[in-house]
Amino acid sequence: xxxxxxxxxxxxxxxxxxxxxxxxxxxxxxxxxxxxxxxxxxxxxxxxxxxxxxxxxxxxxxxxxxxxxxxxxxxxxxxxxxxxxxxxxx
Length: 90
What we know:
Elements: E1 4-6, H1 9-16, E2 22-24, H2 30-35, E3 44-46, H3 51-64, E4 70-72, H4 77-85
Parallel strand pairs: 1-2, 3-4
């Protein structure tokens, strides 16, 4: 089972057609993470295209859920180092 948090309304509509549980919102916002019940997650996969947004999400996750395993896709070496500095696996 998985849950998706997606900031694009069009992508949310598309994904829901296939039966996916998709929450619309910005995963860098604590209220979005709470609505998606991230506190119950076993792992969080961070695959946001924008490196700055990805790092903001990673910071929020670390602050709210410090023990949650997070695996992220890095766009480049600088992005990977920024995520690793937050204890995020790339």
